[in-house]
Amino acid sequence: MISLLNKMTVEEKLGQLVQIAPFFFVRDLKNELYGPATELGLSLEQIFLTGSVLGIGSPEEMIEVQKRYLDNSRLKIPLLFMADIIHGYQTIFPIPLAMACSFNPELIKTMARISAVEAQTSGIHITFSPMADIVRDPRWGRVMESFGEDPYLNYVLSYYAVKGYQNDNITKEGSLGACAKHFAGYGLVESGREYNTVDISEYALRQYFLAGYQGAIDAGAVMMMTSFNLFEGIPATMNEKLLKEILRKEMEFKGVIISDYNGLKETMIHGISSSEKEAALNCMKAGLDIEMVSGNYILRLKEDFDSGKLPMSLLDEACLRVLNLKKEIGLFDNPFKGVSRDKHNEVVLSKKHLDEALKVAYESIVLLKNDKDVLPIIAKNKVYACGPNLHTNNLNGAWSWHGKSNSNETYHDVLKEKCNIVKNFEESDYIVYFGGEKFNESGEAKSKTNIDFPIEQLEEIIKLKEMSKPIILVINAGRPLVLTAIEKHVDSILYSWFLGTKNALAVVGTLIGDNNPSGKLAISFPRALGQVPVYYNHLPTGRPKNDYDNEYTTGYIDSENDPLYCFGFGLSYSKFEYDELIIKETTVEDDFTLKINVKNDSFMPGFETIQLYIKDTYAHVSRPVKELKSFQKIWFNSNEVKEVSFKITKEMFEYFDNKSKRKIDHGEFIVYVGSSSSNVKMVKINYVGKEK
Ligand code: GLC
User: Fold this and answer.
1) Which superfamily is assigned to 576-687 in CATH?
2) Which of helix, strand or coil describes residue 436?
3) 8 Å CB contact between 157 and 316
4) Does the Cβ of 149 fall within 6 Å of ligand 1?
5) pLDDT digits (tens, 9 = 90+) for 223-248
6) Looking at the DSSP assignment, which residues form a beta bridge with residue 643?
7) pLDDT over 90 at 143, yes or no
8) Does 260 participate in catalysis according to the annotation?
9) Cβ of 444 less than 6 Å from ligand 1
10) Are 569 and 523 in contact (CB under 8 A)?
11) In sequence order, what are the residues at sequence separation of 6 or more whose Cβ sits closer than 8 angstroms to the Cβ of residue 503?
12) 199-216: per-residue pLDDT in tens?
């Protein structure tokens, strides 16, 4: 690629660092533009110098754009096509927050694999996924796109998502380059308000919030997207410390860095860059390689590179990363790699893909309540189905872009097939209420100040309760809702998030016992909005609730501290019993093994996710009351007992101190194992091994 680089003019090099919408190459394409992208100010020849495309609608559209582009390109450097394939291309999988509740990394890898195979037939080469932002605030609309509140779970699932998208390597047909996002800390917007200020310490960033991005990097993600928010008062898109010191040097990221939509220009609105030229300079110096849908690199930096005011090495480095990525993807060998209408028709929404989507949906459902084992219902019994979501097929959730909800079944469609549904509740044995949110109440620019279970649905259910029939509540939502008011009025609650194309079948199959729910919450459910942010890996404080019996301890006068449903919680139709922990030696100086017998004390076979947490009792900084360090999702047959063993490594004891140094100390650690973050067995150990 060096020889190609040496043939390029400054303007051609700058062009490779600009991403625009496909509409600019073929004017009669569907205009997917909005806001800033519409007034790019690029000349026609500059448009045909740009390096990549945001979004493409079909195989034919990609072929037309690439052809038109190459016909007008002096050096025939192919365009790179990128898009948001977040939880499926046309076969839509559960929203990422739901998939995180499966605690099954292999399913996330399957989702990513299938997404890549389908998307590539439309000539897409890079996906802006996984979103690896850790989120503790359900008011934020994009919580649906995250893997939840826990650093370890985020690390693992981001790692597996990248492995799924990129396959063995991104040269292979049917693999997508993964662009992780949004670096860094976007999920911590104040008040959960979209695009709001983020103000976190460098210590907290390292200790908690980089894990997801690191998982993606360790899996070989080829791209990282900067976030809209500030870090230490400077927008991430132009933040040299964040991009060069932390991302490149410390986290060893070697791929391409791209801005989010118009992020370069927004450094002006943040009040840092005073002009478009200064914005371009600031981002270029900070190490931003590609700017998304603004043309300032090509419009504003030419003369500074021509005159030598800016070192050419800065531009060459960025341009070479982009050229090498295009080469690695195989675009120089075949600019139309993977695109094919026939292949598209063969693989998209294929039965194999839909079957996989059902499996993922099954394991993403969380059973939050099941009094008197009302569920599973007996299919032949009479069901009265009602609620605002009974007839909708809009169950894909946000960021399902190419997913057409009209290919989805509704709950009513599937209930008619699988159950004995009756028209009036008098003759029914059960009432099943389908409620929660609509698909467009979460996602980007969908923050909410009120996350209560909808009051009109609560009132309806209270009326139905007078019928004194068992009430089963099925909730679709893109976020945790506050269920405190409703949970006492229903017998069972199935949280079905937005499960994608097979949502209806997955839920009805679970209601009638074809599927035994195994989901565990990847994010805490607050008792009240006033608790937010509430999360399990909180710090002890100097006055923990349980250590004193007086009022002067951390808490509220009108609520308990704990969430309504905690991280890691989820019921099953099976009944799992945990024995005491078995450990040979409680004084340890190296890695060690810990065992526990778990029994399925029921006739219903099913999965249980056994979780392992660790607390570091004394350290150089205050450490969380517990942190997830491992988990195992294991199948149990009827009445089966299994000995589950965990290997505890000293790396699990590692943390960052307030000088961002990695530490491991001697002393007491508490190891917890259980079915959720609050239902655990524990053992104290004394670590006397190597310190850091
Ligand atoms: C959006 C999102 C980002 C997405 C990008 C391209 O504003 O913040 O996640 O990948 O623009 O659509």
Assistant:
1) Immunoglobulins (2.60.40.10)
2) strand
3) no
4) no
5) 999 999 999 999 999 999 999 999 99
6) 597
7) yes
8) yes
9) yes
10) no
11) 94, 361, 395, 396, 408, 476, 496
12) 999 999 999 999 999 999
Within 183-295, residue ranges assigned H as helices are 202-204, 211-218, 240, 263-269, 276-286
Question: Is there a contact between 641 and 397 (Cβ–Cβ < 8 Å)?
Answer: no
Percent of the chain beyond pLDDT 90? 93
Whether residue 546 contacts residue 560, with contact meaning beta carbons closer than 8 Å, is answered with no
φ/ψ of residue 144, rounded to 5? -65, -25
> Comparing C-alpha atoms, which of 593, 598, 618, 597 is closest to residue 608?
598
| Residues 232/173, Cβ–Cβ less than 8 Å | no
Rounded Cα distance, 266 and 294, in Å:
10
Alpha carbon distance 605, 599 (integer Å)? 11
Question: In sequence order, which residues have a C-beta less than 8 Å from that of residue 403 and are 6 or more positions away?
Answer: 88, 89, 90, 91, 92, 396, 500, 501
**Domain 348-531: which topology?**
Rossmann fold (3.40.50)
Each residue's pLDDT tens digit, 76-98: 999 999 999 999 999 999 999 99
pLDDT at residue 546 in the model: 76
Return the best residue to mutate from 19, 84, 290 for the ligand 1 pocket (most ligand atoms within 8 A of CB). 84
Q: What is the pLDDT of residue 32?
A: 47
For 260-290, write each residue's pLDDT tens digit: 999 999 999 999 999 999 999 999 999 999 9
Q: How far apart are CA 514 and CA 451, in angstroms?
A: 31
In this structure, the number of other CB atoms found within 10 A of the CB of residue 371 comes to 11
The stretch 133-154 carries a mean pLDDT of 98
- Asked if the model's pLDDT at residue 547 lies above 70, the reply is no
Among the listed ranges 22-31, 57-66, 200-209, 359-368, which one has the minimum average pLDDT value? Answer: 22-31
The Cβ-side half-sphere exposure at 258, using a 13 Å CA radius, reads: 34
| 38 pLDDT higher than 70 | no
DSSP SS3 for 494 = strand
CB atoms within 10 A of CB 1: 16
Which spans in 310-426 are helix H?
A: 312-329, 341-347, 351-364, 411-418
How many Cα neighbours within 13 Å face the side chain of 208?
Answer: 22
CA 153 to chain centre: 10
Domain boundaries, the chain: 348-531, 576-687
Q: Is the CB of 145 under 6 A from ligand 1?
A: no
**Closest-CA residue to 217 (of 145, 135, 288, 155):** 155
Q: Which of 260, 265, 293 is the best mutation target for the ligand 1 pocket, counting ligand atoms within 8 Å of the beta carbon and taking the most?
A: 260
C-beta 194 within 6 A of ligand 1: no
For 566-598, letters b (16+ CB in 10 Å) and e give bbbbbbbbbbbebeebebeeeebeeebebebeb
In tens, the pLDDT along 319-369 reads 999 999 999 999 999 999 999 999 999 999 999 999 999 999 999 999 999
- Token readout for 401 is 């872009």
- Do the beta carbons of residue 507 and residue 365 sit within 8 Å? yes
Helix (H, G, I), strand (E, B) or coil at 683: strand
Over residues 628-686, the pLDDT tens digits come to: 999 999 999 999 999 999 999 999 999 999 999 999 999 999 999 999 999 999 999 99
Q: Residue 421 is inside which H or E element, if any?
A: strand 420-421
Tell me if residue 643 falls in helix, strand or coil.
strand
Gap between the Cα atoms of 606 and 9, Å rounded: 62
Indicate whether 554 pLDDT > 60. Answer: yes
Catalytic residue selected from 133, 150, 260, 616: 260
Average model confidence (pLDDT) for the chain? 96
